[in-house]
Amino acid sequence: MNALTFKNGDKMPIIGLGTWKSKPGEVYQAVLWAIESGYRHIDCAAIYDNEKEVGIALEKAFKDNMVKREEIFITSKLWNSCHRLEDVQPALKKTLRDLKLDYLDLYLIHWPVSFKHGVGFAQTREEYYTYSDVPLSQTWEGMEHCINAGLTKHIGVSNFNISKLTEIMKSASLAPEMNQVELHPFLPQNKLVDFCNKNGILLTAYSPLGSGDRSASIKMPDEPSLLENKIVREIADRTGLSPAQVLIAYSLTRGIAVIPKSVNKERISQNLAAMDIRLSTQDMKALSQIGTSFRYVSGSFFTGAISPYRLSDLWEQE
Ligand code: A2P
Fold this sequence. Notes:
The chain is of the alpha/beta class. The protein has 11 helices and 12 strands.
């Protein structure tokens, strides 16, 4: 199974190129290397501040007949400052202009957290909206309009827990089709995965390699390393895979899509080469018993003292 299948039969290749943290000046080449090496899925977001450069790379790939538009799956995400009904479609149209596309394959609400229009990262209490100002159901309605307007083929969410998914599903005409969340052996998210599986919501794992290139300002001192974890390394050494391939295969084995980020030609190819790898029951068991529990993208930047949101609004206890 090298693709996930949506309810209407559309397929999403199970490995995509992540572009969070890919710098302008690097992401253009990374996207072209990825397409050249066989990637047919690129994961983007407006807040990554590099969609224009991704768009120039896609334009080149189409012009040079490396790939046709209908052969590649492109995801992007709605930023927190465009959650009001009237702001959703304009935000998607801006992303389409930047990516130089007529439509997206998948559009996601990036976070269940709202900022006032035009705010990048809220720095004061006044720059936030609360859930009573802008309910998630309102944002979801805007997402549904995007499908009806033909701007995206599928819609979903990112960083949503079970209660937020349930809330949206109550009023939705179209149920969320995807939840993109942090997922790896330090954060298996078993309850969320079960809930999504039972409700026909596909999953994509972000930060599958532990996002070691996050800026120092959002890192904790002494973070555990996934790539250097003893059990991951033991499986890699025994199977002849790289630690990154073991981590990618961990999600693939669970039927979950993965979007490893790389701007390095060899690592881009190496990550895609994990496409057909599935781990044995024994190795999956060893990874599930790793004993280290860690969330790299804590969400604490949206839940500080000035924010109306608490960490308990974002994550449920496993
Ligand atoms: P680089 O872009 O230089 O390849 P995540 O996908 O969890 O956010 O992790 C991205 C980080 O992992 C980046 O620092 C990226 O560096 C690195 N990385 C990507 N692929 C590999 C790989 N195959 N082996 C080791 N590190 C990798």
